[in-house]
Fold each of these.
Amino acid sequence: MLTAKSLSGELVQTPVDILASAQTRGSPRIAGHPDLCSFEATVKAAALAYAAAGVTARDIDVVELHDCFSIAEIIDSEDLGLMSRGAGGAWAAEGRTGMGGDVVINPSGGLLSKGHPVGATGVGQIYEIVRQLRGDHPSQVQGARLGMTHNLGGTGVACTVTILGRSA
Amino acid sequence: MRVPVDIEMARCVACGHVDAITCVLCAKCLGTEMAAHAVPGRGRLATWTTIRRPPTRFCELAPYYVCVVDLDSGPRVTGRIDTLAGAKSGAPVMAVPCESGIRLFTLA
């Protein structure tokens, strides 16, 4: 249920706040990306969302990002600023993005685990983060208070980053 | 010496911006008059990948190789490359004729 914050207390027992949602565009073509290891749309959307929510990448506890291919998780996590540029692969290999790590990425299993049902993927990411923030997820990230979703369309042509927070 | 075939692009009549695909609107100045513009099919291989599970209409061709090329004239384009033997990032490539109309490169 999506509702005004003033009504959420009486309608939902454990409301979750939408702190920011930003959508941006990038090139529709691989050849339109000057850096093949980054999607401009993600970088821009993340910057807009962090600014609107008044948080930084370090504040995020759990992320559902667009790992449509295994390399995409590494590119996306770096584009979202979750670790420094070039460190995404090592962080994944060392478990720093796993349960109990520095930032938990795709505890749901991500797109590759759910078959990436285009369209439903984005709604699914929101569902996952909402349950994490309510604290009732079967694969619960302990103490999660701030969550983020990242959805990237086509070859980086459109990106949406949403930041959700557990209501105080 | 082999001569590369030209690659067809679009050029904005108003601002001169060259786009790697035929389009009706200039991505730079939003001009609406785009003219055909051929550039020499010569450049350098940026990267490539092997397609082993192609869409149905390309099944007969698999495995085939898709590449990204930085043309000497500036724009970056995608295409196919006939073989990966000797392929490395930065290697000179040239466009060769291809019956199917697909942009095809070979190591120069």
Amino acid sequence: MLYIKCPYCGLRAQKEFSYGGDATVKRPNINEEVSSEDWDNFVYMRKSPRGKHIELWQHIAGCRQWIKVQRDTATHEIFQTAKVTEEIR
Amino acid sequence: MSQPFRLNKEGLINRNKKISFTFNGKKLFGFEGDTIASALIANGIHLVGRSFKYHRPRGFFGAGVEEPNAKLQVEFNGHSEPNVNATEMELVEGLSATSQNCWPSVNFDVGAINNFLKMFFPAGFYYKTFMWPKSFWYKIYEPFIRKAAGLGVASIEKDKERYEHKFEYCDLLVTGSGPSGLASAYAAAKNGAKVILAEDKPRFGGTLLTDDVSIDNLSGKDWAEKIITELKSMPNVTVKNRSQVFGYYDHNMLVMFERVSDHLEKKSKFTPRQRLWYIRAKETILSTGSIERPIVFGNNDTPGIFLSAAAKEYMKVYGVLVGKKPLIFTNNDSAYETALEFKKNNVEPIILDTREEHSSELIDEAKSKGIDIRFSHGVIVANGYKKVKSAKIGKLNKDKNSFEKIETVDCDCICVSGFWTPSVHLASQSGNKLKYEEKIDAFIPDKKKQHETSVGAANGSFTLEESLKHGFENGSNLSAKITETKTEISIPNVNEKKYGAHDKFWCMPLPKNENPKRFVDFQNDVSVSDIEIALREGYRSIEHVKRYTTLGMATDQGRTSNLNGLQLVSNIENKIVPEVGHTTFRPPFTPITIGTIVGREVGMEYMPTRKTPMHEWHEKNNAVFVDAGAWKRPRYYKLGSETLFEASKREAKNVRENVGICDVTTLGKIDIKGPDAAEFLNRVYTNAWMKLPVGKARYGLMLREDGIVMDDGTTTRISENHYHMTTTTAQAANVLSHLEYYLQIVWPELNVNVVSTTEQWAGAAIAGPKSRDMLSKLYPDLDVSNEALPFMGYKEAEFFGVPSRIFRISFSGELAYEINVKSDHGMFMWEKMMEVGKDFGNQPYGTEALSTLRIEMGHVAGPELDGRTIPSDVSLNGLVSKKKDFIGKNSLGREAFNVESRQKIVGLIPIDRKSSIPEGSHIVQDQNAKLPNPKLGHVSSSCWSVENNNPFSLAIMKDGKNMIGKKFFAVSPLKNKSIEVEVISSHYVDPEGKRVRS
């Protein structure tokens, strides 16, 4: 079971969180024209990297904040966590 | 009554407390502190079970977790448990143990015929034999194999015991209380670290209890006791015996299995039987020790053959002799300690040492005590079927591949030692890639993967001095990093015997023309020849050899067999062991009960139960409940001997004719506030929200980004910047997360807050033509006319002195209202409604009637919004704005969503107007067509239309709107039904929606 550091609450067990997918995907702006290719990429296309991956988790059983987690998909090592407004490099 | 193999004085058992128990029906005695194994051995009983495949007689081999044979069916404290390890289970008064895998008895077992047919049961036998004829598998082969396989019998009774889960956090977890574990825990505790020390056995000390050593002039046992006593007195230390750390998971989480009360005769009511600990440790010390491995020889599974250290443990801990005429068969010095212990107890052992004559501290001592030592000797084959009677021994030639001399010696037990294997299971589970240590012919941990440090024998150091030093150093350094305190501890003086080098010898050759079974893995009956066959048949990877032969599988996980199996494979393959590699170590290290894994989450505690504030009223009024997620909702209220069908029909009919009330508390409710709330709703919902006036509600539809309908519900503008959203019961949590996602990540610039208020409000729907009359009685001072409170109107008013919200919304399709009051007032509201409603023929209605009402109106719900439908599929495209953007809008333009023949919602009625159409039925053109019969759609919801008094269903059907008026078949192979149906509009009742506006 992963041990995830919520930037608001501190280290908490994985069972308090819910997974939310790739955090680097950016939704096309509302009310702006978007090509169907860009839209399809946004809705459907995801990379499945082996190694470092920046992903979203929501602290559903805690502060209910969505957060960013940089995790190694092969080893589960967590390198960094951040608020969604912050950058992970 | 007497225990013929019990020593007079030795041992740590409590001789003042006699314990009676039975084995295979025979009444026997042991002492407090015995295991089942030690008590049976004390009584001279060795034959305890039959082997898995050949049904060969089996006895005890070890004295702890390494035991591969002695698994018993044990009854105690009112439950029966299979596969209990006799070497671990402590004796309790009244315990009853029986042998497994034998019939009619362990002494005469019919299955033993397999042993004499063993030439027909080689490795891969099952794979090869039961292949054909194919049709025989289900009816003949599989039932036969299932009956023959397996050891004990699992109970089918409900487990009445209590099991617990516990979550714990610590600086340092120490797994094992041998010398290195004690030293680590002690050093860390002195540095102020929060320490948990876990010991699998009932007694602390590990090898200190059995080795002839002294520390600071105290015996090993006394030193261990002193340290444990001090650790127990420290507030920062938790010391646990009978606790096995069995799994090492991600991020330094370890799981421990504690046997809390299995050893107790009496316990208090709420004492759990066993407890599972989830321990998140900053650092972990793996002081798991090592397990002796056997040397392979002929008939080496005969009862009376033990690991040499186990024989010593039986003497020193339990005061029990495993035999009175022992043969000690060894390739190293440690077995000499066993021989000396026998000698001390006036038993004359013979030592067979595979090494050539040489000298070491222990050998010299054995010689000086006059023990018969035969160098370059080994056991070729054990004689005796149900117990060792003698052994054929041989003098090995220089190359150790044949014999210079063979003779037979009498013996009643053989104690074998093939050197030591570090217990690296937890280290391996942590992700540590192991490395092969040539010096000890075994794997030890390599570079750390997590925060684990292996010390002592688990790390391949077999001397006490080294183990203690490692323990103190690592315990001190690891904890000092955490506590930033370092207390100097002087490492104690140690007195131990020096061991000479061991012999890299692990399997006895066989004389010509002799072919007894030589077992590598006892628990699975895997012999040398089985592994040879696997390799001959082309299995190369050790993982494949394991699966083909079952080497190292089952509950003992090959603790005594893995390395010998690897040696054999590498010998035959002409490789070295590290090239062969090892199989994966997986948790649990030892078997744990299912009850412990489940913990308290059984029966009513399996998941939380959510009850509405009116729940008690429903119970008192014969409600039959249905689970809606965690909620309990009344499905119908049973009158007299009514069936579900009759009751729901009555309730629905009463809504259409008079008025009904329904508990709608479970609907998801989300409070939305902020200056940008309107803009936010406008993006979330498919329809327009900017112009909704204060005091009005609107029906809204929300999509996922892929265009599929996510949820529907009404949202009401309470005030300028304040909205009240409702969701379906099932989607409440998902919708909240969805809204939070967009507010926190996608549009953080919107100033909006959302919070769930589902539990804050109790809700009741009043529906039916008489609902306005009833409402006016509930709110005598309020104008509830159609003009003052029109469809989709909203008002706040006092409900008999209690603040309330009135929404004129309808799910039933009738004139209807929903009243919300704070949860605390829910019961008050409900009872008042029942009282006032009497004059109007009011009846409560449950979810079944609710479904009937919405289905015949053609209102969609979960079965239609099933994650595959877009708005136009369910005739909700009128709610999709063409002017503005919203979540999922871009996806609605996809080609597949816009083809003419796309699925649409329709209504179905049976031609005979009588047969109910099962939900999930497929719609087909020809009911007799050859399979696969082309599917045109499926039935999503079915009801008995109370308005038209015949069955009616909703269906999602290809090109549905153009099918209206046509006839098809709804077939349900599950229910074995095929019903001819006619396609009609999905709006079966009041298609213009006049009633809701009346």
Amino acid sequence: MSRQDAISLAYLAAIVSFVLALRFLSSPTTARLGNWLGAGGMAVAIAATLAQRGLDHHVSILVVMLVSAPVGAFAARSVKMTAMPQMVALFNGVGGGAAALIGLAEFHDQAPEPGRIAFNVGLSTVLSALIGSISFAGSLVAFAKLQELVSGRPITYPGQKLGNGLLIAAAAGVGIAILAGPQEDGLLIGVIAGAALFGVLFVLPIGGADMPVVISLLNALTGLAAAATGFVLHNNVLIVSGALVGASGTLLTLLMGRAMNRSIGNVLFGAFGQVAAGPAAAAAAGTDGQAVRSAGPEDVAIMLAYAKRVVIVPGYGMAVAQAQHAVRELADQLEHGGVDVRYAIHPVAGRMPGHMNVLLAEANVPYPQLHELEEINPEFPRTDVALVIGANDVTNPAARTSPASPIYGMPILDVDRAATIVVLKRGMSPGFAGIDNELYLDPKTVMLFGDAKDSVTRLVAAVKAL
Amino acid sequence: MTSGRLIVELTVLVLAIFVGFEVISKVPTLLHTPLMSGTNAIHGIVLVGAIVVAGLPDQATWIRIVALAAVALGTMNVVGGFVVTDRMLEMFKKRAAAPPAREAPSSSRQER
């Protein structure tokens, strides 16, 4: 067996380990093992690559790896669970950036003089540069939005869609020009720069609540960019891994779109929630005329402690306030007193797919208590208290009842069917979709105003005092 | 460059996409965040490509710098991705307490 064969077999082993890693993610009991398996496969693939014949400059490569590995590990170790969406966006962008740079370097290497690159290699080079660059820049903007370095609100201006369309068309046009003839580094750098600018402008108008879709999509793009570099370098492990990631990201994107009952196009180009950015709308929302019932923590504690069944509905507000540990404590107190406590998780609650599940897992909530929308909705009519913590649009009954509402048709958690609804909220402002929530005016609803963590902590104390 | 190689590579790509859809559709929503972060780590495989390009002999300096930058990004992607995923998965626990709420929901989640 030649060395090249051995390397190819090592790549095959890596491919198998990646597929198994994803397979093991189908259950929380095997998932962790799967992740290590994937990491092992990655180590094998990297070692095999370093052993490749004809590879030069091992020292500088190894030094760069040894310096950057601790950076990645440190970032991954030190990041707070509440900052996880940003972290995922950042690592995603880093991978896309690497793919774009590989495209550029390989292009230069293969095109000693114009007109020498085979069409298919040229195409995959241009694609890896283009897609990788969009993913890199888009992910960084998503990171900035999630980290609140940039406003989470959609940022719009006149001619935005047209401008973005022209920009990406121009970048693609230069890419085609490269394929057709003048194979110069400068042109590919132009493609990369244009694509990066497009990535920025494309994510800017997308609102915070739509981030789960955007992050999934960027994840898919990075996968595709990696697959494209596989075509450039004729490397199967890159092609397969990129395809797996591309499939995963695409599937999640579609699932998120379905969970909001909106087409992906609407999410990406609709600048959803920009109505609410209008100054008057937000200020006046919900407060005029009708009475909102508000209560103190002691009253709510009594409702909770004497309930048979309580369903907790967490939302982004819980994440922002980092209230998950307090919530768990409250649930423990209630369970101690014999109350049946469950959690209802909406698929798009939070800023990335599965966001609430991770936060509650961090607070040691056993995952069998976390219920998906389809499971928990039939339970609400038998629920005494639905405790909504920092969730808004995903509980808005207008999605069921009012065809005029922008979120009409979106599957929601039917909290309004519970006997009593308690809403923990900072104030009466509308959610990210910028729509009033008639739930708050429901006679069965009680509002407990304040920061989610403070409110829950006060509830814990009040329940203890009973 | 023969077109035969391209066809083989395309075949691999398409089959891998099918495998991806098949495997990933079995991941419960509970684990969607670790799925994202796990696939993030997997696309760190671009590091392999970065190493190949950075290791080509006789290159212009600026190209080597570009390629080594790709190695750095790829390494951070791989290491950070797997570590973050492990941190998340470590947290998902099935507590022994709370017996009634335990078995029923988890079995219904497996059904699909």
Amino acid sequence: MIVAEQKPFEEIAKMVEIFDKVLILGCNECVTVCLSGGEKEVGVLATSLRLYRKQGDRPITTVEETLVRQCEWEYLDEIEKLVEDVDCIISMACGVGVQFVAERFPDKWVIPALDTKCAGGAVEHGLWEERCGMCGECILHKTGGVCPVARCSKRILNGPCGGSQNGKCEVKDVDCIWDQIYKRMMALGRMDQLMEIELEKDWSKARDGGPRKMSREEVMIGE
Amino acid sequence: MSEFQPKIVAFCCYYCAYSAADLAGSMRLQYPPTIRMIEQPCSGRIDIQLILQAFEDGADGVYVAGCLEGDCHFLKGNYRAKRRVAEAKKILDDVGIGGERVEMYNLSGSMGPRFAEVAHEMHDRIKGLGPSPLNKRATKKEVMTGDCS
């Protein structure tokens, strides 16, 4: 899933300071699972904003709604009426959702309430870790299901580097993922596979090649 | 002007604080009438929104009273409440209400005197802090407009 984190409250409050009625829009997908932009978080942000603004001379009215997904037009159609009536929309979705909302409602000012962090998962309650670098060409079959693109600080494809010390990375306080890859390959009896040199990666398939598109003709509707 | 009497909401776990309140009553222990108790099935029922809502609806202070650590009837509810109260403190600081207006207490059903003590403690704390900024504002408005309805 996409992992996101709420921006500092002060920042959000500053972005909405000129508005009197806002729609706080949650998303029931990834950001609900990572507890940053679901129905509950919408409620907390709405109450926080009201509490904050009530202390000044400009109270704020909040409208709360949470969609199945913000990244699909059909769900955004549902809030057309709600949107008409507000000064701006605070989207509590990932960057994708925010952009879909902005595109669907071109005459409304849209504010992101979250910082989108990474593609990852919850390794335990309240702890999310990056797992996929979205490089566009998966190599997990070569590394025992452990991704060096997302999890090696240097994105090394033939690791570990000299900075791997006692299973820890020299760049930041994380496990050296190449150490983990070696341990896993050893356990699986596949060490010989690691002897093969991984040639340079085609990064044009990643974000480096510009914005990416994916299409599938057979599911397209139309002539 | 009359003396400030705070409104304090106490979210009390049925298995401990609520029984302790009963016991305090049976023991004829006095505690401030500014405490409004709300029975909860477990302190783990508390979430941040509930605490914020209490302030929005006019509370000057809020506390959550759960079982002693390790004694939760539902095993971990009080630990969860403790973390949520800590997070609510941060949010209340951010929005300008003040995190010191919310607190977490742990007690058992047999601690009637402690219940009364906690009530006094919170009453004194909130009295010292004065009305919540929202209520302060309302009071000011009343004074200015003479509207006390």
